[in-house]
Amino acid sequence: MEWTECIGGAINYIEDNLTEELTVEDIAHKVLISPFYFQKGFNMLCGFTVGDYIKKRRLSLAGSELVSTDEKVIDIALKYGYNSPDSFTKAFTRFHGATPTSVRKGEAMIKSFASLKINFTLEGGYTMDYKIVKKDQFTVVGISNVFNYDEAETEVPKLWEEYYQKGLSNIVCSVYGISIDENMEGNKFEYLIADNYDPIKDISEEFITKTIPEHTWAVFSCKGASSKSIPDVQKKIFSQWLPNCRDYEIAAGYNIEMYSDPSEYKKGVEDDDYYSEIWIPVKAK
Known about the structure:
The protein is an alpha+beta fold.
């Protein structure tokens, strides 16, 4: 199954089961893709996490039922996965900007969140600079934490902020940002800010070492301010390169960003000429 077909199939499965228990693992397995890359690809292609999509669709449908039926609020809450009126009211109010009671009384409007549709359009003509490289296993040293996919967008930047605030960048350079889900089956992944490990140097207790296995890597170049170039290339990998690549597919649960030394550029990581790379482990189809 091709990449865009996988995402389309996953969306259809979600829509058919919005009133049932849904897990990322089950959805990914239904479309024969690992949860690790399914979640990353879904976020890149659709603009929000799988969990956010499910939550917004359920709350949108719950709002519609409140205004179009006489079903009790508690029954609607239970139908869409909320076990208490309080938790439903809080989530409903955050999404719709009004309480279920005020909506039921006709005192407030509700928001609609339409289901996603995968459209196949004429695209292409883009250029992506990449190379295929066979790399032996290598060891990195750095700081690490484990994140839920739904929290990663806000929590990973906090790890970077802590890394700089503590002055850890003066001890271990930030050459890599590494996402790891070795089993590619969970709702969590490990994230490292790391440098190449030098066994001659002593490392303090706050740092760990991690060995990255031997792989064949698709290495994509990113040129320009990292805050824009890296997300743009990540999105192109999942929306354009993977769906159209006839020779390779994802091989393992790793996603590595490699950063140049910011001191070599006038504006650091936001310089127009700043260079970085994204590494994806691949195997022949």
